[in-house]
Amino acid sequence: YVLERGGLELIDIPGNTYHTAVALDTHSIMFEVSQGPHDSESYKKFPNWAPAEDDPTKAEYLESLRALFEK
């Protein structure tokens, strides 16, 4: 999904679903809500094809995602 002002501005993603968000504009805001209780063991599980938050290749991966939306 690409959210645009005046159009689709909200997505409901089912729990236990791999997902990511890529800001395409500097004025973007993301707000994520998860139903509790919080389970730190399962909260952030990364698939083997995506870098973890401490992976040094994460910036390159993010840029590859942004490139998918270039016009």
Describe this structure in words.
It is a single chain. This protein is mostly loops and 71 residues long. It is flat. It has one helix at 58-67. The chain contains one helix and no strands. 0% of the residues are buried.
The structural class is little secondary structure
Major sheet description: none
Q: What Rg do the Cα atoms give? A: 14 Å
Number of helices: 1
Distance between the termini: 15 Å
pLDDT < 50 runs, ≥5 residues:
none
User: In oligomeric terms, what are we looking at?
Assistant: single chain
Helix content: 10-25%
Give the overall average pLDDT: 83
Quantity of strands, as a count: 0
Instruction: Give the helices and strands as they follow along the chain.
Output: H
Indicate the overall shape.
flat
Strand content: under 5%
